[in-house]
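pasting for ref
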Amino acid sequence: MFNTDIPLILDSHHLHLEISQSSQVSEQNYSTPGASRRAWINQLCLEAFLPWFESEMAPDAKVSVNHAALPSFWELFNGTPITFDNYRLVLIPTLAVDNDELRVPQEWVDIPEFAADYYIGVEVNPDDSFIKIFGYTTHEKLNNKGFLDNNDRTYSLESEDLIDDINVLAVAWEFNTSETLRAEITPLESIPQAQAKNFLERLGNSEVKFPRLEVPFSVWGSLIAQSSWQKKLYAKRQGLPVEQSMTQWLQEGITNLSQMWGWEKKEFAMASSGMRSSAAVQGLSKELIIADNTYELRIFPREEGEDTIWKFELRNPVAGGKIPAGFKLRLLTEDLEEFENNQDIAKVSTDVLYVEVILEPGEGLIWETEPVAEDWEREVLRF
């Protein structure tokens, strides 16, 4: 079953995978030494586990958030989410060597947007350059048999309740076992924007060492379940600007926060009206996966008299590629309200979908597509 090109060692129960000497652990700022160490072991764990998992079990496996957004998780709590074949798992690395229990942060269990089907305990041994998969469990078992420690907000499950051989997963998928994977999760009530801003200001202070323990879990969970608030909290704890406008991104360059959303600054060649020549324009680009195909969302300004018109385009980046009939590109206000001419619909396959808007300085918009883009997260773009 195993690919011999990937170095590994097997004992009687547990899979060991080598930490490659060429592993690229990216340098990133974190607000505390503990957060920095947490990020380090998560990166080592991910780089050792994911190539093996892709090769041997799930060819479509991938980190379920933009890689640039992972620091916004590791700044706050332990674990790395991976999606594959309509399932979700969370890697829970630890430096502990006794492996007598699996300890999972409450965020991965009780926040509906973060919850997974499987939780995999991983011992990380940097000195000897290996990781050991010491066991896994399901959300249902963790929720019903695990112990929730309200002091550090972690679910713990004893080792005897874990399945220690990860290959059992492959057997379960092969025979389509009807095991219940997820327990029912009580939805968290959203918190008003003004209250969220107050918590952002308070918890964004890097002198607060454990922000996840500073407020009731219902409040904390609601706050970070909104991806934009989670990313802003990370940025604030790093002393980075929390909100920059699209104009600032174009003038001053892409920030860490915009990279977390997957944006990059690009130059587009725009055909001049009635002319064969083209002019270059600076804009922002984001890759989208929609219905298993890759598309590009572009945003760029153009001047018309005294007005600045912002153009949103959805394109197929492949030469000659089309936008299929039925696709929609839609803009909403930051209060999720529609407005006149806020969407474009492909009635037949077409080269591009676009919406143009004139905005006041500081105004915000939200974009969305139908079908919904893979891993789409609602974000407010400030202009």
